Amino acid sequence: MVRFPRLQRRLRFSFSPAATGVPADSGLSFNQVQHALMSATVAAIGTPSEVLHHVRPLQAAREVLVLEPDEATRQLRGGDLAIFHSEHFERFRRCCTALKERQVATLYLVDGILEWRNAWENRSDEPACPWTMRPVLSHKIACIGASQARTLATWGNGDKIEITGLPRLDGFQVAAPQALGTGAFRVLVATAKFPGFTPGQIATTLRSLRDVRQLEREGFQIGGRGLQFVWRVAPPLDRELDLGERPDDWSGRDLPELLAGVDAVLTTPSTLMLEAMLAGRPVALLDYHNAPHYVPAAWRITAAEQLRPVLNELASPAPARLALQRELLGDALQTGENATARVSQLIEKMLSIAADCVAAERPLEFPASLLTAAAGTWPALDHQRLYPDHASFATTNQVELQAELGHCRREIAHLEQVIAGLRGELGLAHEIFDQIQRHPIAGPVVRLRQRFFEFMARIRPRSGSQATADRATEMSSTADVEAARGSESCTPR
User: Fold this and answer.
1) What residue ranges of the chain have pLDDT lower than 70?
2) Model confidence pLDDT, tens digit, residues 106-121
3) 3-class secondary structure for 53-122?
């Protein structure tokens, strides 16, 4: 039997009742302790309706319980791990603080984008904590992407940040519609679950949606195609818009199916915009609030007069805009590696560190960057699409491109020789001109001629007389002839 004395000494410890609930004189063997560490509990904190869609992908890798805050406070022990999807409300914040005191590792699994109004423009009597995530209470934060990580770092969470991606979007696929680009131009109009956080914000969001609704009623067309909207808005805005029972009411279908049937997406700030970008649909932000955005879009509508031109652009999106959208998506959402695997790896590393800390009877401390950087997902620019009028980007044949490059380099070398010759001739011309300027007779004549032209340039806008212009031309010609004769008479023979 292979033994690891140092590991056994580290793990053979007396449990702290306050930390684990196990009596200090329990006399557990090394194998019993090892089993206790391997069977640590992982629980998502909240009701099933609040957390199941967040953690369901993780449950395929390991058991994840769902516990309400008070229940988690009673059941979890030192070395366990709690997953929070929110720290906005007091029941979650109180639970997180209590669990940390009991040596329970805590992980904030962010499940969406950051939104400016939600962070900074709430009601004065808002029940949620006004400084939520500034900083985060949990030991670690699983961020969905690089841009979110940067923002949360500036909010005082630098050592807590780990970029994982969004587990529920692993393998997110949307089938292309059967007749994309033909028939009616279909646009998904969507809002976030909370379309506003104050009565004024909700009214502004409703006004923007009413402008879209009016456009629908007017029968606006795009390039000869009819315009058809598919609505997915949060209540009670659907009732305010009088949507009623519509033939295109797909509210019971899942989002991938919705996206598969539309050409473009018009949405208020929401994580749905990332899903639409993943589906390759052009996305415009509908934002009459004109607020800053932690996740921007390539198109944006802040006023009614922008609706028609932006919808026209969405119907025929410029390649440069689509390239920008892919870049923004890559910055907002980590998709280079499987997000579920990265979160699972983070959980296991946190459990291991928590076990060591509990064994040593010291507070839980987690180092920065437990996960290695995810593989980059920055898409390369497609120059053939960006510059369709330039034949140079029409071919991708390497041999042809190499031959053309060799020819271009030979031509460049030839042109450089021509330019060098012209520069030499230009230098010689400058020398001759300098000699004329210094000549005792020709020099003053040339300078007088130059001053005359400057004088005529000043008076010409104030005089429309053609005779004046003709006289100027005649005097100029006379001066040129005299200057030439003076130069010839003084040139040595």
Assistant:
1) 1-38, 177-182, 245-253, 376-381, 461-493
2) 999 999 999 999 999 9
3) HHHHHHHCCCCCEEECHHHHHHHCCCCCEEEECCCCCHHHHHHHHHHHHCCCEEEEECCCCCCHHHHHCC
